[in-house]
Write a structure and sequence with these properties.
single chain, alpha/beta, five-stranded parallel β-sheet, two-stranded antiparallel sheet, 6 helices
Length: 179
Amino acid sequence: PCKLSDQSLLSSLVPLVFLKDFCPARPLIRLSGSSDSGKTTAGKLIGYAIYGEDIAKTGTIASFYTDASRNPLAMIDNLEVPSMKAELLDFLLTGATGIVHEKKKLYTDQDIVREKATSFIVTTGLESLGKPELLSRQWDVACDESFHDPAFSHNACMLEIFANRDLILSAVIDLLAHK
């Protein structure tokens, strides 16, 4: 549901997640557009290819850090500017810059817990996040109904990904190993 250049960027995200440990800083991918623009569907299709399931979610800051430290791709659905709290901004900056987030370990006086969001982070929402700290670190993919293909079926595409997921991932790994 986006320009051809943005479709190329989103397609490159699947092989990039396998190289995340070689990327000290990672751009935030923002899928923005109206409520019927297809931004969540686009994000879900990427999740299906990588994980074999829908990974779009909302959650707590703690759950975001855990997810982003364990998995190659994290997706936060329906993240809007008015709901952007300082802790969430810190999480996104940590993910984009590769810095470490520290906090005191629960029930201790001196122990520290270090959390690092090492995944690529995709967010969806109605508009660009627009925060000055994020603007230079995000790739805003404008999703729009004008790019919709009337023949597209979310369910058919999802089933096609599931049926060919092993082949898709094998091709990605082969491409990364030989190129």
